Amino acid sequence: xxxxxxxxxxxxxxxxxxxxxxxxxxxxxxxxxxxxxxxxxxxxxxxxxxxxxxxxxxxxxxxxxxxxxxxxxxxxxxxxxxxxxxxxxxxxxxxxxxxxxxxxxxxxxxxxxx
Amino acid sequence: xxxxxxxxxxxxxxxxxxxxxxxxxxxxxxxxxxxxxxxxxxxxxxxxxxxxxxxxxxxxxxxxxxxxxxxxxxxxxxxxxxxxxxxxxxxxxxxxxxxxxxxxxxxxxxxxxxx
Lengths: 114, 115
What we know:
The structure holds 2 protein chains of 2 kinds. By secondary structure, chain A is mainly beta. Chain A has no helices and 11 strands. In chain A, a hairpin with a 3-residue loop joins strand 4 (31-38) and strand 5. The radius of gyration of chain A is 13 Å and the shape is globular. Chain A starts with a strand and ends with a strand. The mean pLDDT of chain A is 92. Chain B is built from no helices and 12 strands. Chain B has strands spanning 3-5, 10-14, 19-21, 24-26, 32-39, 46-52, 60-61, 64-69, 74-79, 88-96, 104-105, 109-114. In chain B, strands 2, 5, 6, 10, 11 and 12 form a 6-stranded mixed beta sheet that branches. In chain B, a hairpin with a 4-residue loop joins strand 8 and strand 9. At the A-B interface, strand 4, strand 5, strand 9 and strand 10 of A face strand 5, strand 6 and strand 11 of B.
């Protein structure tokens, strides 16, 4: 158990809908990262937050957005869902220092868009 | 941009034997981190081992060890005394040394362990 929690584990929804994925980092970790794992694109970085502020953006679609709250949990919002958004979404967290910290992954949320 | 390449889509190993997974990467940085993550059928991403580029000594974690060749930009993982529980996808990943940087992953290598 990495200490990172993600809810829900599975999500099935229809095209055009909007969903919210939630992540709680390890105790004390200030950084949260979101990654998408799909069959055709592999594991890709989406976005990073550090202590409530957006720190870095990767290949994140405009239909996707994220935020990190004062209690450090993070939410990834996916809207106008398409079939191609079906994937495993991981959240990872790392510690205060940031420079040397390893990222620890949550169990992931499997999103299926029908 | 940094890229990570794993040239072996799948590797098979007999239980108790040794298997080596290859990883090459491309970067213009001199300081960085390299990782191997394991993803078993549960899909959880589990850190296996980590290597700092400034360290010449190869990292070791129990039955897992790496061969880090900085000049060749190569970072292979050796699994010794393979166990059935080692069966999984293994991902090589790169991260710049600056604070909070993302991981860049290779495409993964599936390891099959034969009893």
